[in-house]
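Intended use. Records like the one below are meant for learning the mapping from a protein sequence to its folded structure. Do not use them to infer anything beyond what is encoded.
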Amino acid sequence: MSAMFKLKTGWKNYVLQSFFATLVIFAILLLLSLRRAVIAASLGATAFILFTLPNDFTAQPRNVIGGHLIGVISGSLFNLIIHYLPQHSAALYAMAVGFSIFFMVITDTEHPPASGTALGIVMFGSSARVVLEVMASVIALSMAHHFLKNYIKDLR
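Structure written out for the chain above:
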């Protein structure tokens, strides 16, 4: 099916679902500290999944919330390790991502953007505020997804 044909037949959903994602992310960004741009980027990727592929298994609340929780834990743990050299930092950043992937897979909470959360936290630090902001954001996204589910459909 050509892209133009998809747009002609489903344009209302494309516009509506993009608008929903825009509104939810706008509300979250108003509450987040913009210093956490890397983490905000993973939340944007989560919004993409929730509002373009709402029936995908990675869009389910268990995956969204559980995946980001694993990302927060992974990034926070590897952030605790002191690293002075760039090579050590790069290794810790990569290990935080790998650790998050491994634990998401074994707990059946796969959500790809959550590895970005792990990376952002290990690179820029963790605090109670960061954890609270990330988890409140993913819960808000999951709630919006739940309440709007009757109005959105898979766009692929």
